[in-house]
Amino acid sequence: MKHIILTRFNLVFENWKNDRNNNPILSKEWLEERFELFKNYCFPSVKKQSNQEFVWVVFFDVATPHEYLSVITELQDSYDNFLPLYIDGNKSVESTLLHYIEQNFDGEDFILTTRIDNDDILHCDFVKTVQDIARQNYIHNLVIDVRKGYQMVLCKSHEEYRVCLQNFNPFISLLQKKELYSSIFARQHPDWKNEKNIVVHDRKPLWIQIIHQRNKVNRVNRHNRLVNFNDYLSFGFTKKKRKRGLLYINTYNSLIKIYEKFRN
Known about the structure:
Distance between the termini: 73 Å
Oligomer: single chain
Helix content: 25-40%
Shape: globular
Order of helices and strands: EHEHEHEEHEEEEEEEHH
Structural class: alpha/beta
Radius of gyration: 20 Å
Strand content: 15-25%
Mean pLDDT: 85
Number of helices: 6
Strand order of the largest sheet: 3-2-1-4-9-6-10
C-alpha cells in the first residue's frame, strides 16, 4: 500500500471565483493569507506526523506568481515528503495523479489517498491512525471517516476552539485497488457517504479545521462546545500572539477620526 496526502492550493475552479465576502480569490491578498496559514499551521502539522510513510502532493497552479515559487522551493527543501506539482487548474488533478502513480509506484496493490485543505491541521497521529485502519481492511473503495476534531476560529483578538464531530468531512481518506484508482477528489467529500464500506473513527480529535474570514463554505458551528485548547504540540504548531492591544488602539483612533469628521 502507498499513501498519498492530497492538497489543492491555488487551482482555478470554474465555479469558484470569490470568497465568502465576495472578494476575488487568487489575488495577491488571498495568496499572502493562504501562504501564511499554510506555513504556520498546515505544513508543520503534516511534517510532525509520527508515521512518515507517505508522500504529500500539493497542487499549485502553473500561473502561481513568481514571488511564491521560492517559498514553495524552501518548503520542499525542508521536508522530503512534500511534493509540489504545478498543473493547469483543477481539471488536471486526476490525470496528473494517475500519471504520477504509474511512474512512481510499482508492485503495490492498493493506493490510500487522504485529503487536507491548505488552511487546516492534522494531529501527529492522524496518518498512523488512518494507515492502521487501512491495513486491517484491504477493501476496494474503503472510506475512512475520521469524524472528530476541532474548529479553530481566528478572531481579531484571540482564537476560539470548539470540539467538532462531522461525518464525511474534508479530512476523509479512501483506499483503492491501484488498477481501479480514481482518488479521493473524484467526488465531493460529503458524497462518499453512499459507499458500502465505511470505517468510522471518532475516539479522539485528530484534526483542526480553521475558520477565517476568507473561507468559502466552512462556518462556525455555535452548537459545538467551546474548549480550553492547549494541545499545540500534538498538532505541530505554537500558540500565536494576537495583537489585542493594537486592535483597541486602531478602534480608538477610528472613533476619534469619525468624531472629528462630524464635529467639523
